[in-house]
Design brief:
- The protein is 53% helix and 9% strand.
- It is of the alpha/beta class.
- It folds into 3 domains: 180 residues, Ribonuclease H-like superfamily/Ribonuclease H (Nucleotidyltransferase, domain 5); 88 residues; 63 residues, no CATH class.
- The protein has a 6-stranded mixed beta sheet.
Length: 353
């Protein structure tokens, strides 16, 4: 088994990476109760060899981490976001030059969130077992079955990469992929409330929901706790629908909050008057304007539907619901059709509506 848990083995692997301009990359991590993923393995794949680096081993990862951060080495990852988070946090680096095969597959017409397993089946005609997907990656020693599973996650990446690159070229969508690879779609913390835009009918509800989300995010990051282990999104929505937020008594939230420390944190840090700024009031009014502009929203959806049908891709690839909402409400959110090929296709037209 190609498990790297000794320094001399890691040094040899680093030599192989140094000689390469492209590697396959994957991770195994645990993220059930924590805000940040806890890294367990880093899998590295080449054209015909594959390795799993044990991050629990007491090794000097300085050289290895420097190579992972090398912008001149292309890293092929499937559904890269959480892998990148885990690697960046563990090694204290910033990975760049990522080729996300899930994004490439989406643009090639495989649909949203296509799995690595399905790509392996379609492109490589191999069936992979996912039985170890939720196994305990903290236990040592890892079983042979776990290692086979982990290595399979990079074994076929090169073949998938070459096939998707060819398909993108044939479809004339290579530049779409290059452009989308450099855009970050993650919703900024200050706009988390967009996900709850239909839950607040009164300014008081809006202010409290916005404050709870902001404070929950800050507490979760500082204490490395999964946000839903503090208070669940569905409970925030329930509270809003029931009208329990109208009187602004955080004591009414106590039964929904799962940790007493977080409850006390909310009580001590929530200040309604400080939260109710002119800017917040304007944001709330903008959300109400969204309802008044139903025709514009429907027109934008029709535009997305037209291009989705034309290219055989999901509507959300061209315009997401959050982007439509942010555009109509004039929220400075990272809207993709304000730039690049989407802007040329339809963005300029929408901006004039």
């Amino acid at each position: 088994m190609a498990l790297i848990d000794h320094q001399e083995e890691l040094d040899l692997l680093c030599e192989l990476i140094e000689q390469s301009s492209i590697i396959a990359l994957d991770t195994e991590f645990i993220r059930t109760k924590t805000y940040y993923p806890d890294l367990s393995l880093v899998q590295i794949g080449f054209e015909d060899s594959y390795f799993a680096v044990d991050t629990f081993a007491k090794l000097d990862f300085t050289h290895f981490s420097r190579l992972l951060a090398n912008p001149n080495i292309l890293k092929i990852i499937h559904s890269a976001e959480q892998d990148i988070q885990a690697i960046n946090r563990f090694f204290n680096i910033e990975i760049t030059n990522i080729y996300d095969t899930q994004l490439a597959a989406l643009i090639c017409g495989y649909g949203e969130s296509v799995s690595y397993r399905n790509l392996v089946k379609d492109i490589c005609d191999k069936d992979l077992s996912k039985k170890q997907q939720f196994s305990n990656w903290e236990v040592r020693p890892l079983s042979d079955v776990q290692l086979v599973y982990a290595l399979n996650d990079v074994k076929y990446s090169m073949n998938i990469y070459h096939e998707l690159e060819q398909r993108l070229e044939i479809l004339g969508r290579t530049e779409w992929f290059r452009e989308d690879s450099n855009i970050t779609y993650t919703l900024p913390d200050e706009y988390l409330w967009i996900k709850f835009k239909k839950s607040s009918n009164h300014i008081e509800e809006f202010v409290l929901i916005k404050a709870i989300l902001k404070l929950r995010q800050k507490y979760a990051m500082e204490h490395n706790i999964a946000p839903n282990h503090l208070i669940k999104n569905i409970d925030i929505t329930k509270l809003a629908h029931k009208g329990n937020l109208l009187n602004l008594k955080l004591e009414n939230l106590e039964e929904y909050i799962q940790k007493e420390e977080f409850y006390n944190y909310l009580v001590n840090n929530f200040d309604y008057q400080a939260e109710l700024t002119e800017e917040v009031a304007q944001k709330f009014q903008n959300t109400k304007n969204y309802i008044k502009h139903a025709k514009l929203s429907n027109l934008i959806k029709e535009i997305a539907s037209h291009f989705a049908d034309k290219y055989g891709l999901p509507e959300s690839y061209f315009i997401s619901r959050d982007e439509t909402f942010a555009h109509i409400c004039q929220i400075p959110y990272n809207i993709r059709f304000y730039q690049g090929f989407r802007k040329e296709m339809f963005g300029d037209f929408i901006s004039k509506l």
